Amino acid sequence: MSSHIKLFSPGPVEVSEKTFQAFRKPMIGHRGNDFKKLYAAVQPGLQQLFGTTRPVFISTSSSWGVMEGALRNLTKGKVLNCMNGAFSDKWNDVAKRCGYEAEKLQVEWGKPITPELLKARLEQGDIDVVTLIHNETSTGCMSPLKDLADVLKQFPEVLSVVDTVSSCTVVPIPFDELGIDVLLTGSQKAFALPPGMAFLSVSEKGMKRAAEVKGRGYYFDFLEFQKNHEGDMTPSTPVISHIYALQSKLEDIAAEGLENRYARHAKTNALVAEWVKARGFEFFAPEGYRSVGLTCVKNNKGVDVAAWIGRLKSKYSCIIDGGYGKIKGETFRISNMGDETEETISQLLAWLDDTAE
Ligand SMILES: *Cc1c(COP(=O)(O)O)cnc(C)c1O
């Protein structure tokens, strides 16, 4: 068995040699011109991925840092957490731990959040901030973001925070068009960078709200991000090596072309879907709402998933994921996020066949 186990699990995903090379550039001061140039250089690429003319702030934290931070910046009243899987359920717990009154809009795991459901709850009033996870990585379910954003537009008094951790760079996420207030994502999933960095954009309305909210703290304060952004800097010492790696990744994305990148994800995802059907497995999420960057497979055949992954690992030095949280073993997940190609995904599927019992 090689010491390098390639990850086909949905986060962290495999990181390329080129990215690691970018990581080990010599260190620079974070208040000097070299850093300011680096910060400014990554902005256009990030803005293009976010479909925005707003700044894209860089946070030295995992996604949860900004998921919690967004609540701390925006919340004056009641939070509504749209919940349909492990990450979106957890956001409700996080809101409560921050001391907010947080209501659940709970849907069965694997099912999408629908615009009808969101609209019905918002019509009852009394909601200040909505949290939504575009793509529930635990269940492989993608909720209809455009339709949900259209509902949110009908309630301009409600602020919205949308997590695109496993969908940004897989499918287009046009922040400005959607009209949502915070868009956030992390580095270790669709971006195929190591974990430890997150990105976020905030609408004008979101910035205005933050200015009115007390107790925002310092580390995730939107106003600090904005003030420092204006000088091409971050509030505290950022993970500079990671930003070099991001610069390298944005070059890769530009070289491939965004449309080609989206098409590549759609194709590799379709390859996995064909395999799932051909092998007599089912999908955990319904047709029309399935993730494009990963596949959550229902273990309807009752195979020993952990043993299968063990064989895959020892024979081919790679792994898929054996299911997340309460659906571990009942499901397994295959990621096609990041740098995977038709060739690497076809290879993986052949290896899965070879190691199946
Ligand atoms: C992985 C994931 C997170 C959590 O990210 P961390 O980097 O562990 O903080 C949040 N939301 C979604 C949708 C995820 O897939």
Which features does this protein show?
single chain; 357 residues; alpha/beta; Aspartate Aminotransferase, domain 1; Aspartate Aminotransferase, domain 2; 2 domains; 7-stranded mixed beta sheet; binds pyridoxal-5'-phosphate
Word description of this protein:
The structure is a single chain. The chain is of the alpha/beta class and about 350 residues long. The protein folds into 2 domains: about 5-15 and about 260-355, Alpha-Beta Complex (Aspartate Aminotransferase, domain 1); about 15-255, 3-Layer(aba) Sandwich (Aspartate Aminotransferase, domain 2), CATH 3.40.640.10. Helix content is about 45%, strand content about 15%. It is built from 13 helices and 14 strands. It has helices spanning about 15-25, 35-50, 65-75, 85-95, 115-125, 145-155, 175-180, 205-210, 220-230, 240-255, 260-280, 305-315, 340-355; strands spanning about 5, 55-60, 80-85, 100-105, 130-135, 135, 140, 160-165, 180-185, 200, 280-285, 295-300, 320, 330-335. The strands form 4 sheets. Strands 2-10-9-8-5-3-4 form a 7-stranded mixed β-sheet, sandwiched between helices. α4 (about 85-95) links the parallel β3 (about 80-85) and β4. It is globular, with a radius of gyration of 20 Å. The two termini are about 20 Å apart. The model has no long low-confidence stretch (mean pLDDT about 95). The site of pyridoxal-5'-phosphate has 13 residues, from α3.
